[in-house]
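Most newcomers find our protein records easier to grasp once they have seen one. Nothing more is needed to start thinking about how sequence determines fold. Here is such a record, shown just as it appears in the course material:
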Amino acid sequence: MNATLAAAPNGRRGRMITVWTPEDKAFWEREGEAVAKINLWISVPALFLAFAVWQVWSVVAVGLPALGFKYSTNQLFWLAAAPALSGATLRIFYSFIVPLVGGRRWTAISTATLLIPAIGIGMAVQDNTTSYPTMLMLALLCGLGGGNFSSSMANISFFFPKERKGSALGVNAGLGNLGVSVVQFLSPLVVTAGIFGIFGGDAQTIVKNGQTLQVWTQNAAFVWVPWIALVSVAAWFGMNDIADARASFATQATIFGRKHNWLMCVLYLGTFGSFIGYAAGFPLLIKSQFPNVNPLAYAWLGPLVGALVRPFGGWLSDKLGGARVTFWNFVVMACAVVGVLYFLPKGQASPYAFAFGPAAGNFTGFFLMFLVLFLTTGIGNGSTFRMIPVIFLNQALKGVNPKDAEAVARATKEGNTEGAATLGFTAAMAAYGGFFIPKSYGSSISATGGPELALYTFIVFYLCCIAITWWNYSRKNAPMPC
């Protein structure tokens, strides 16, 4: 090792940082904040692209029938849900990989892997004889984007002090979540023109409202390819690895014995699981319940609201406390689902439809209730992710003599390591919501004629989240206030 680099006052060895103490205010003001912000602002577009690729099927699946693909409604819901299933599973592994590989290296590598599904989908949709198993495999490969969230959030959590974690994680996730909304807004626009010329393939012919149109459906995937390549290079050369963040899997695996890891898995499933599940299933749900409405004209607004408000949820939780914000957030979520049920069409065959409310349904009311749901998922995403690092840092520091600097440093590292692992693992569990919500819509419609049974299940789940939050975190004399 080069002795000069090892002894450098800023603790740098190339892109590796050997000394990182963000809780030290002098260090943070002198150099820590600037470095942390650089890593955050490269992480944001990387996560944005991950979400865009992860959710591209929520748009592509809607347009496949017009292209001549002979898939059933349930098969289309499977294509929308499959990326969440694989993404959630990958997140389990991605949760623990940053301390093993390094945040810079893994951000660059994991972003580059998004090229596989982006190029594959662009090629497959050009041929309407592409088999359903092939399409399903490509949908599962989009889970590579879903997996990136866990590693991204775990990585960024190491860079910021406790009082800034909520805001930083909110910005990273909130702006990253915008990829869901942008892919649903941008895709219908980019497919209308051959923007890649001879490199983008031939147009497909569809009939819409009695008119024959040419579309380039492959552009919905190809449009992300150059940006993925660019951000991968930026991450490799612009981000940092933190030596103190290194930890073995065994060290991180201690979270499996922590009660709060499992409780926060449930709460984050209620917030982020709802966000990604509603985003994945919203276009197809609109199409199935309000067939005269163009779902792609409206569906992107929900994820946009949820993504933009997430940083506010983190900031609000830094000010008021994550548990308090989370508790009331779940109360509003349960009420909003009741509102969705009220505005659904009552002419469906479902025996679970409300006996009151407009018989033909009301799309405006339905849509506004879903906007409230997306708003609360965003606030809840920020508040729960503020709770996690605080819970584990407080737990690690409990009983430690604040005058023993060495013991405090050791406990702080332990708390940060467990908090980062929990951030990743809870994100993995929550991502299964992206599978269960759209799939539950499809199953409910197939079994009962409408989505009502699925929505009743969501209400019951939110009531459970309210009880968990109140008992463990938000009530007076709660065992772990945060």
